[in-house]
Amino acid sequence: MANKSSNRIKPAETELKEKLVNLNRVAKVTKGGRTFSFAAIVVVGDGNGTVGHGLGKARDVSESISKAVDDAKKNLIKIPLHKGTIPHEQKGKYGAGKVLIKPASDGTGVIAGGAMRAVLEIAGVHNVLAKSMGSSNPHNVVKATIDALSRLRSPMEVSRQRNISMEKLFNG
Fold first, then answer.
1. Residue 45, number of CB atoms within 10 A of its CB
2. How far is Cα 127 from Cα 101, in angstroms, rounded to an integer?
């Protein structure tokens, strides 16, 4: 849990892109009939290692999306990127949603499905292999992907934690 708080960053209102992952229409049955409302899941990021997710609920679609974007801007994290991919393989989990992300060579592209693809593209990962296991619920898949990304460590961070030089880290 300490790792997540250290990756949190303050929202920068400039150049943040947003992507709608899922829009769900829910109905509340009352005496007078059905009352519809909308729940939106949105991811925001700058395409350069910053990503966040948010949930917004409202009676109309546009208001739920804007609430989700505001929520996402409060939950931004910074991830280490290395030549357009991630530094190492990582698993993430949230509820029954489990994900696996692996670094890929240049030119591979984002090999991921649905909710994972949206998160990885907004984060600025250009080459990655990803697999979603377990639940296909967009809420859990997005949060599991964010969990996996927040657990990533840069080579500098690894060398600092192990008290070894960068050369020794890469050469054995």
1. 27
2. 11
